[in-house]
Design goal:
Elements: E1 12-14, E2 17-19, E3 26-31, E4 36-42, H1 46-65, H2 68-84, H3 86-97, H4 101-118, H5 121-124, E5 128-134, E6 137-145, E7 148-152, H6 160-171, E8 175-179, H7 185-197, E9 205-207, H8 212-220, E10 224-230, H9 233-245, E11 249-253, E12 259-262, H10 268-280, E13 292-296, H11 299-312, H12 333-348, E14 352-355, E15 374-377, H13 384-387, E16 394-400, H14 403-410, E17 415-416, E18 418-422, H15 426-435, E19 440-443, E20 459-460, E21 463-464, H16 471-477, E22 479-487, H17 496-499
Parallel strand pairs: 7-8, 7-10, 8-9, 10-11, 12-13, 12-18, 13-16, 15-16, 18-19
Antiparallel strand pairs: 1-2, 3-4, 5-6, 6-22, 11-21, 14-15, 17-20
Helix pairs in contact: 1-8, 2-4, 2-7, 3-4, 3-7, 4-6, 10-11
Bound molecules: nicotinamide-adenine-dinucleotide (NAD).
Nicotinamide-adenine-dinucleotide (NAD) binds next to helix 8.
């Protein structure tokens, strides 16, 4: 890839060659810490998508016939290269996304764990067999590739989310088209360069860039068989509906509203630490962000003073150059204003801002997209800030008299990604886990994002489809099963050599 500068278009990767597509439109990529433009994303259309599909088709047969152990060896070499370039990747994420270097390392690490999981390809791809389903008849199931698969990514995890997708798709013998977020395309491009250095054959994985036009071309292309999507819920729903209408298998992970329950018997030090990380890690731009503290009984009064103190001490700054900054800017000025506007609205609706980040500025970088950590208390369920996904550094606090009323409220949300409880009562924890309408639960843990070998298990408006990303469900999504039934004749009966 050529050296990136403010005016350089980010290249696409088709058939093993990097090139700049001749598209008219570009969208700027920013460094959120400074507000500077650092690259230009080309907004590809159907012509570029079609070239990528053709490259996949040309590489498909050979890759599908490659033994799983050889596909796994590519992943072993890839893992070693990610290790070698770990810091470079983390710095790239910090620069184009704005999260801290520590958070960026986590982004790479969690993605690399999927690569490690994919290294066990032969084990993951084994089928099943049952002898004697009837006398002399056996039945077996084998897993075969689906065909051309696509990954469409959000901006908030530039390394992790793409790596949720292509490592598993590839070890299953599929070819792949990756569309990184147009807001953070640089990390994805570097990850794919490394993958080819690891020995992935040309054309097996191709990269295109763009927005709606590009995505629509992917969703409707007749030769594409499966779509993995991660992003906001309205777009996830659209992707699911449009993709399935066009005969594709779709897994589409969407947005969230995650509640962190704090019981009066909780360990408050642990709860405050967990809440601060859950709400303000990655400046709240996580689908598993613990964006609402649900304080039960007297927990609210105990929690608020130490919580507010901890939040006020979070140092906001330019994460690409100040390693002491504990929280960075958000992705864009537009997003900053939207999140600040939700806080303004909550005040009009009667909530109380306890810690106000709306006035935070970094004088050296007046064009950076900064919004300080904010805590809004006395949020009620009919307020807009209680209903919409905020996706920024804002923690809502809601108060309830008992666990029953709190579970009832949180189960009304349309989303179903994550929920946590802080308590020392096994009874309360069990009741919570059993009844909460959420696919990923934490008990005395703030962000219960499952690791690579478990499904990333959103429910309801947080996930559209059947088979989730990661783990065995991920392998099932990227394979189709073939069942063979075989009748065997008894040994000795009718064999010519038996008679001789
Ligand atoms: P987004 O929905 O705006 O964009 C995601 C992808 O969809 C991008 O690649 C974008 O180019 C494409 N896109 C955007 N608008 C489109 C349209 N009208 N038609 C077709 N394609 C379109 O999401 P984002 O702002 O990049 O990411 C943040 C969202 O992602 C949050 O809602 C967050 O909760 C969610 N997210 C969910 C998970 C999860 O596992 N559930 C993980 C990470 C992020």
């Amino acid at each position: 890839m050529s050296t990136q500068s403010a005016q350089t278009p980010v290249p696409v990767f088709i058939g093993g060659e990097w090139s700049v597509p001749k598209t008219a439109a570009h969208t700027p990529v920013f460094n959120p810490s400074t507000g500077e433009v650092i690259a230009q994303t080309p907004m590809c259309g159907a012509d570029v998508v079609d070239q990528a599909v053709q490259a996949c088709e040309a590489a498909a047969l050979d890759w599908a016939e490659t033994p799983p152990i050889e596909r796994a060896r590519v992943m072993f070499r890839y893992k070693a290269l990610i290790d070698k370039h770990f810091e470079e990747l983390a710095q790239m994420i910090t620069r184009e996304h704005g999260k801290t270097i520590v958070e960026a390392r986590g982004d790479v690490l969690r993605g690399m764990e999927v690569v490690e999981y994919a290294c066990s390809a032969p084990e993951l791809l084994k089928g099943e067999v049952l002898e004697n389903i009837a006398r002399g008849i056996d039945c077996d199931v084998i897993k075969q590739p689906v065909g051309i698969c696509v990954g469409i990514c959000p901006y908030n995890f530039p390394a992790l989310v793409p790596m949720w997708m292509y490592p598993l798709a590839l070890i299953c013998g599929n070819t792949f088209i990756l569309k990184p977020s147009e807001k953070v395309p640089l990390t994805g491009v570097r990850l794919i360069e490394l993958l080819h250095e690891a020995g992935l054959p040309k054309g097996v994985l191709n990269v295109v860039h763009g927005g709606k036009e590009c995505v629509d071309a992917l969703l409707t292309h007749p030769k594409i068989r499966a779509i993995s999507f991660v992003g906001s819920s309205p777009i996830a729903k659209y992707i699911f509906e449009m993709g399935t209408q066009h005969g594709k298998r779709v897994q589409a992970a969407g947005g969230a509203k995650n509640y962190v329950f704090v019981m009066p018997d909780a360990d408050f030090d642990n709860s405050v630490k967990g809440l601060v990380d859950a709400a303000f890690g990655c400046a709240g731009q996580r689908c598993m962000a613990g964006s609402t503290a649900v304080a039960i009984g007297k927990a609210g009064d105990h929690l608020l003073p130490p919580l507010a103190e901890a939040v006020r001490s979070i140092k906001v700054g330019p994460t690409d150059r100040d390693p002491t900054a504990k929280m960075g800017a958000v992705i864009s000025q537009q997003h900053r204003d939207k999140v600040a506007g939700l806080v303004d609205g909550s005040v009009r609706e009667g909530a109380k801002v306890v810690v106000d980040g709306r006035t935070v500025k970094i004088p050296e970088f007046p064009k950076g997209f900064y919004l300080g950590p904010t805590v809004v208390d006395h949020v009620r369920e009919n307020m807009t800030i209680a209903k919409d996904e905020v996706f920024g550094p804002v923690l809502n606090v809601m108060r309830f008299d008992d666990l029953e009323a709190a579970i009832e409220m949180s189960n009304k949300t349309i989303f179903g990604n994550g929920a946590c409880i802080y308590t020392q009562s096994g009874k309360a924890a069990r009741e919570f886990r059993h009844r909460i309408k959420s696919g990923m639960v934490g008990i005395n843990i703030g962000v219960p994002a499952p690791l690579a070998y478990f499904p990333f298990s959103g429910w309801d408006y947080s996930f559209f489809g059947d088979l989730h990303l990661q783990g065995r469900e991920g392998v099932m999504f990227y394979t189709r099963q073939k069942v063979t039934t075989t009748r065997w004749f008894r040994y000795g009966e009718g064999d010519i050599w038996h008679k001789e």
